[in-house]
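As a warm-up, study this chain.
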Amino acid sequence: MPGLTNATVFEVFAIWGVLFIAFLGLGYALLLRSQIMKKDKGTPQMQEVWTAIRTGADTYLVRQLKTILPLIFVLTGVLFFSVYIIPPTEEALLRFKGFNPDMVRLIVGIGRALAFVMGACFSLMVGQFGMRMAVEGNVRVASASRRSFAEALQIAYRTGTITGMLTDGLGLLGGSIIFIIFGIASPDVLLGFGFGGTLLALFMRVGGGIYTKAADVGADLVGKVEKNIPEDDPRNAAVVADLVGDNVGDCAGMAADIFESYEVTIVSGLILGLALVGITHELKWIVFPLLVRGIGVLSSIIGTYLVKGKKGNERGDALSSINRGFYASAAISVVSFLFLAHFYMREWRAFFSVGAGILLAIVIDEITKYFTHTHHAPVKEIAGASRTGAATLILRGLSIGFESAAWQFVVIALTILAAVVIYWGQPVIFVLYGVAMTGIGMLTLTGNNVAMDSFGPIADNANGIGEMTHMEPKARQIMADLDAVGNTTKAITKGVAIGSAVIAAVSLFGSFLADVTKVQMQMGLAENLRLLSTGIRVSEPMVFIGMLLGGAVPCLFSSLTINSVARAAALIVHEVRRQFHIPGLMEGKVKPDYKQAVDICTISAQKELISLALIAVLSPILIGMVLNVEALGGFLAGVILSGQLLAVFMSTAGGAWDNAKKTIEDGLYGGKGSDAHKASVVGDTVGDPLKDTSGPALNPMIKVINLVSLLAAPIIINHHKTDAGVIVAIVVCSVLIFGAILYSKHGRLSFTKYKKEEL
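Now compare it with the structure written out below.
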């Protein structure tokens, strides 16, 4: 195989086998799609609502693509020329020996740029195709609910599985192709692949989050609190925008989010594995992560196909069936990893590392479930606080969010400690590799996790279609039960997404240390002065400054995204209030103008994309150029620590507020319309942008910053801050960052239906 001259026969066949498994996963997605598309779409009234949802989703996706394409075009050129600023790596020269250094630069530059485009396209495909299938599935689930619970469950879950298998198949396909072509030089190119996927995930997370929560908050505040009407009442002008938002936020955004974690962990695993190949001269360190990923795809195919409902309409049956598929996949994976470690790696440390990742996923599932599920004490306590008003309910939710963050910190710390223990006595690079394998193990069941997440908005949309078209009570009950299970699965997968983001970021942090050390070695720096030897010294003032600034970035990012939701939600409130004054609307004689609310959300979401992306992309470059590469390491540590804390806190608190509201709507403390219910709606609307916009958006933001740092570090080391080009770059980055902050913070949306002072 090119670039792997000392590969064994087994390793060559194994790598080609992984590529075949990637196509197998994509084929499974196509098979499920054909099964779903054969199902009927119900009554003309159901199809009318469905058409409105589909049109709104398509409009959003087209506008989003137009917004981000210019930046993708510019960054493709930047990544191509980035290889010309520094000498080619030893691995690239070895892979393409016989070519002169300039030709090697050209090959790697083209590879990195194309990999960036491929990563961006794959992330976009996962989000867009997955979301489009979710839209196709929701009306079919609503129709199936009139026949049986089992059929509705199967359609909802298998539609979500299509997104899961796209995530698995495309992630594995991209990494395998790059590895087969570039061999030991693949980390140089994989950085582009990971960056493309991560940047698109950031766009889809931020845009989808702003869209969905602007619609949800605006619809709830006017519909539920002011007018005391049901959640998906067809008289509410924002109800279609809310249903569209479930897809662009939870389907497209989450799928792209987990996809980029899937990419990033394989990138960091191969970078660290390559460092171990240099020490041990064995290729198993870079082949093993690919094999683990291939096994994960196969186990997900088997596990997801086992999810089937039984007769009846008990919501516990749905959750137990989904869990059965998840644990079946986990069991197949663990047994397969055991054989792989014993017969191929010929040591148990690799098995324990990926096993720790699977265990971490399960533990985070349980922690998230405890703090957000309606059956456990935290949500019951928040619901109880509603009896004394919105303020006490919000305070109780804040407390739960912080407590959850603390426990997840402990679990992740213990996981990293496990990597230290597993590779006890080995150089630190082995420990970092163990952390990367933990991340790969954690995302082994990506197909299952994404299927569980997409199941939520599909069931939610089906329930909304049922309410808007006044379907029969039996069907409505089935959809309500599926929706309740979907709320739980969404909360669980948010926890997994955040946990995987942190492990992926720590893995990238290890890759940063390894890459900087490699460049320092090429420059002839003494071993005791290299970064892997010195570490990131917090006692150094510049490093400590970098860490403080890193901790500030997630706070700033969260502030800007929450502000964006608040601004857009205010516009939706104005629009819904205006339309409720239309004669005949409240009596059901006139239909609201759903399109105006959809347009408001679409424009609001796109406005923030470029400015927030610029902050994430340029801030590590600025810090590295001004402070130095070690301070950039401190900056990354601050981003990871602060970002993890805020992400878990916001996602958990928001999820707990949401489910507390749902318990009250089920009849607790007076049920719908009571003072307790109104207090819970206020808590839910406060939590909405936290759990579905700012918290999840921090996941890709952390990894964008890490990947940019990996790309920029070799350049920063090779150039002094007093160089003219560096000074110009510092000024440009500073102006762009502060301009982006001002634009995002003080930007104003305007619509002709409102006076300027109202906005």
